[in-house]
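Sorry to interrupt, but I need a hand with the structure work. It will help me judge whether the discrete encoding reads sensibly. Write everything out right here, beneath this request:
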Amino acid sequence: MGESPLERGALYLVATPIGNLGDLSPRALEVLRGVDWIAAEDTRHTRGLLARFAVKTPLFSAHAHNERGRAREIAGRLLAGESGALVVDAGSPAISDPGEFVVKEVVAAGGLVRVVPGPSAVIAALSLSGLSTAAFTFAGFLPAKAGARDGRLAELLARQETLVVYEAPHRVRATLAALDRLAPGRPMAACRELTKLHEEVLRGDARAVLAQVVEERERGEWVLVVAGAGRAAPAPEASDAEDPARARFVAEQVASGASPEEARRRAAFVLGPEAARKAARKGTRKP
């Protein structure tokens, strides 16, 4: 396989496109062609992907309902010297998708696990959100029942870092309403159809986003990115009195989840070095 031949007895966790088939990496394609077999979340879905790239590797299922049994079978095959790939319908195995039990079983059996990284809805949505990326919590899917969902959200929304969750299309309205109750006015972004032709990012607070989720948008899973609870405003520096615009910028960045140090670094980048601004102010003063 090019410069990196496949390892015998290794399980490759292969990330697959979350929408745009062009995002399947050359390495992922080489692995899928080179392994002895592919374990897939939905063989029908994966068969279509493989056909698109003329991959003829044997395929069998490893989904949420048979994963524990398949995990033992996969570990046995690997110990016998076979190499295999594990894929899910979109994105990376074991990230809010089947794969966790397979990896645990293979590791416990002393087998090799390798990763072929690629598309990720979490990272794509976080990048698009316009919110702080300095630190974030990914909480997967929220509980389906309203009480459990609200309890989990209340816990997560108290944190300072940006929050990322998945939500099913038929529950997204209720979850946005809960966000509006629990964190009114909190900036957020709701993403759907990522990397596809009709990719969409709705920004605003939960109430504004909810108003935009009309019926035709209740299709496909959503990724919700919510600003952290924010921090207390940093203690003003002596220079802030001379530069109130910088002070306001820093306070706004901290409120959106950045640390005071990060906020001041961003201020220097956006507004220019503080020393230069001081010199400019002095140059405009009358003698």
